[in-house]
Amino acid sequence: MQILNLLVRHDCPFSGPLAELRGTRVTHLCHRGKEAVLELHASEPPVLAELRRVYEGLGGELLYEETGGSAALVRFPVCACCRGGQVIPSLEGAGHLYLPPSAYTSEGERYQFLAPQGSRDPRPAEHLRAEVTLVRAGTRPLGSLEFEGGFLVPVGTLSGGLTERQRRALTVAILRGYYRTPRAVRAEELAREFGVSRAGFDALLRKAENKLAVALFPYLAIGRTDDPPPAAVPPARDPVEGQGG
């Protein structure tokens, strides 16, 4: 068996607003065309407020908003995405099992499915509706029963503590090959792109790496019975607010 990853675009009331609101992302928790819950994230509180107003205008009910206006939960009585593009029903009708959640950004909608045995080339475009554009598709073998571990480590827990600049610095560094061996780009080059000094860029990466390491620490011993209970780890914080982060 294998995991099928899709990036698609279509005229969807759930993902559509993100095209105009940069620095936003939405996690879509779908219940097979019935109730849908959207987890909204934005780089700035005013942007989140605008995104929330758009969804409330579409009939969404605000369930929760984090202090500081960086994330919110909005519930809909039906899944407009399934009613419209029918990405999930279309692929499940072809024998693929949907693995929630979906993720929406300005780039499009990301889905993950478990492809059945013997489906070496799932050909997802053949099963999508005509109005759905397939941007990218990829597969990887199911090497182990990893679903439990995947659900035990929430992505938001790992990356939620990063500032937008730290998230961007880490993403760019990874994409440009800074963490490859040997490195494909020097820190000085990345620092110039960010308009900061080499020391300032190094500080961005160190703070991001520290926050990710601390967030990941509680999950490192999951499934291990021979390790002692981990000691309490204080949350990672920037030494001086606004400097290098």
Can you give a write-up of this model?
- With 245 residues, the protein is α+β, with helices and mostly antiparallel strands.
- It has 2 domains: 2-142, no CATH class; 151-219, Orthogonal Bundle (Arc Repressor Mutant, subunit A).
- The protein is 31% helix and 23% strand.
- The protein has 8 helices and 9 strands.
- It has helices at residues 45-57, 80-84, 87-93, 147-152, 155-159, 164-175, 187-194, 198-216, and strands spanning 2-9, 24-30, 36-42, 61-65, 71-76, 97-98, 102-105, 108-115, 133-141.
- Strands 1, 2, 3, 4, 5, 6, 7, 8 and 9 form a 9-stranded antiparallel sheet that branches.
- A hairpin with a 5-residue loop joins strand 4 and strand 5.
- It is globular.
- The termini are far apart.
- The mean pLDDT is 79.
What would a concise description of this structure say?
The protein has 245 residues and is α+β, with helices and mostly antiparallel strands. The chain contains 8 helices and 9 strands. Helices cover 31% and strands 23% of the residues.
Number of domains: 2
The rough form would be described as globular
CA(first)-CA(last) distance = 42 Å
What about the largest sheet? 9 strands, antiparallel
Mean pLDDT: 79
Quaternary: single chain
Helix content: 25-40%
- How many helix segments? 8
- Report the strand count: 9
Low-confidence segments: none
Task: Return Rg in Å.
Answer: 20 Å
Structural class: alpha+beta
Strand content: 15-25%
Could you state the order of secondary-structure elements as H and E? Answer: EEEHEEHHEEEEHHHHH
